[in-house]
Amino acid sequence: MSKLLLFHTAHSTPRIHPRTFTSILSRPLLVPSLSKCHSPISFFASISSPALHPHPHLQRQNFSFSFSFSTRAFDDSSSSAETQNEKAEKIGSQSGAKFEAEDYPSGEVEYEKISGWRSFVVKFKMLIAFPWERVRKGSVLTMKLRGQITRTSRVRSVQDLKLAKMASGLISDQLKSRFSPGLSLPQICENFVKAAYDPRISGVYLHIEPLNCGWGKVEEIRRHILNFKKSGKFIIAYIPACGEKEYYLACACEEIYAPPSAYFSLYGLTVQASFLGGVFEKIGIEPQVQRIGKYKSAGDQLTRKTMSEENCEMLTSLLDNIYGNWLDVVSSSKGKKREDVENFINEGIYKVEKLKEEGLITNIHYDDQVISMLKERLGVQKDKNLLMVDYRKYSKVRKWTLGLAAGRDQIAVIRASGSISRVRSPLNAPSSGIIAEQIIEKIRSVRESKRYKAAIIRIDSPGGDALASDLMWREIRLLAESKPVIASMSDVAASGGYYMAMAAGTIVAENLTLTGSIGVVTGKFNLGKLYEKIGFNKEVISRGRYAELFAAEQRPLRSDEAELFAKSAQNAYKQFRDKAAFSRSMPVEKMEEVAQGRVWAGRDAASRGLVDAIGGLSRAIAIAKHRANIPQDRKVTLVELSRPSPTLPEILSGVGNSIVGVDRTLKEVLQDLTFSDGVQARMDGIVFQRLEGLSNATPLFSLIKDYLSSL
């Protein structure tokens, strides 16, 4: 049995496998939070200057610092902390990095009205545009922002710690092909930009329903709503079903409408933890877990019956941070005191009329009434239809048609979203996760090309395969030696996700981006008592002192095996921690203080040196221009290297969208047929190596695993 070494963020009750697992987890707990940067209710509260100017210690003084790093991988796992500190000091002296504050450009968007000759050129381009780009003057852009609930109406969080109101996301951070189901964050944001400058668009009408996406993505959308309002055009929200996350997005709009029967659940946020220790005890399974890092609680789910003090401390801190940000943002948006909003939430309000009385919504209207109101506002006759263009159609309008020409300087954008694996299965769709070999190919093409002045690695990942993460880390480091590399982190960049980010010269995160989780858990299951209960027997013939370390699940570890297990876990943790310290030019002792498996909110990570700047993709672009010596007022061309071409599974999945249940079923079948070498990070629970396809897999244990998964 091969051992699992992986970066991971568990989401739900773990599926049990009789294999050992070693997970370098960063338990990025998808906690509900509100903020202004990528994660509104998640980890970024739309706060003023503090969000744009991080703590002095979180930024390195000069960009050349990242390029002077040695690109050698840490081949010697036994290298001492002193050696790593000497490397960091040497690098710091060469580059002049002193962990001093740097005034990074904010990336704030300013609307520029098109007039004169440019206006004439735009009208001419629209005249000769392709038929599918034609939009009638006076049209209203309509977008329905909603995510499908993939499993149950209950929201699951990392490591089966259910942070209510959290999201895992069908609003993808990846670009999508025309056959892809769901919404694409880049296309949503681009539509807002185009609509602001399009003279044919009068305003935007948003239908906001329960969202199944991370708070970082919601914050990015919210930021674009605020930028769109600078154009002077109206933007109206309609919310038939609304929780904290949906309202956080809606309160950025000028007006909010809801039907009389709307569902509002503004009751607050919770975090829950599930433990299997008691279940295993009853059925005769003994998890033998070695945890490195006092906040690394993945193993706790298997061994404990209650939450540890350290885990409680971490989750409480994250939850307080998120809930506080939500209250701050909502109270500021609606012109109310924070205490008043909190008291209102604590009253348990469910009547829409009460929301109107308190000024939290503009009025109570059905959808047709809102449309009639818009017709009157735009001077449309009652017997005429309101001119509207939807998200899908408007996504086909090119920026060129609207005169939003890009500059000559090009910046490459590489998007890495989902769990990390090393290779791709033939049946695996491009949007299913981060495939290391594909990302590496893109990174090398950017490094070898002279076209690109800088690169942005857009990361939204809780981790995955440790080897894959390290290989990508190496390639990003090599790229950073030749040109500026900025890591822009969305909902979560923990464990393997942070592993990738820390190779960049500058790291940009949202206030509430789940960051860090530098820790290790290793263990195996002793099924001896279970086998005895059910009359099952297993005998192993082996050669070599430790040959049965991962193969003999029918007995507990011997003392020498347990010692080897512990040393292996310590070595894995030390490699991860030391490489993080090296990448961030931080003494190992200081990195140890912020590691230990703890997940940090983005702004807390910034104050501890894990992140350089707080903001979204726009700020990452501004910093990339700054690092590449491109004037801030000069336009650049963003070259998306992750733009997908439709594959057969994706086309079939898109077709299945029109049939109830087919889309979800097909995707699950395709996922189950997908195999991966080595370790696999699973978003729905603690990551275990898949048993399917392994020659020595135990069928009996697979049955037990399936049974426990259904509990």
UniProtKB/TrEMBL annotation:
SUPFAM superfamilies: ClpP/crotonase
Domain Peptidase S49 intervals: 228-380, 479-629
A single MF term (Gene Ontology): serine-type peptidase activity
Keywords: Hydrolase, Protease, Serine protease
Pfam families: Peptidase_S49
Taxonomic superkingdom: Eukaryota
UniProt-annotated stretches for the region Disordered: 78-99
Protein family membership: Belongs to the peptidase S49 family.
Name of the protein: Serine protease SPPA, chloroplastic isoform X1
Lineage of producing organism: Eukaryota, Viridiplantae, Streptophyta, Embryophyta, Tracheophyta
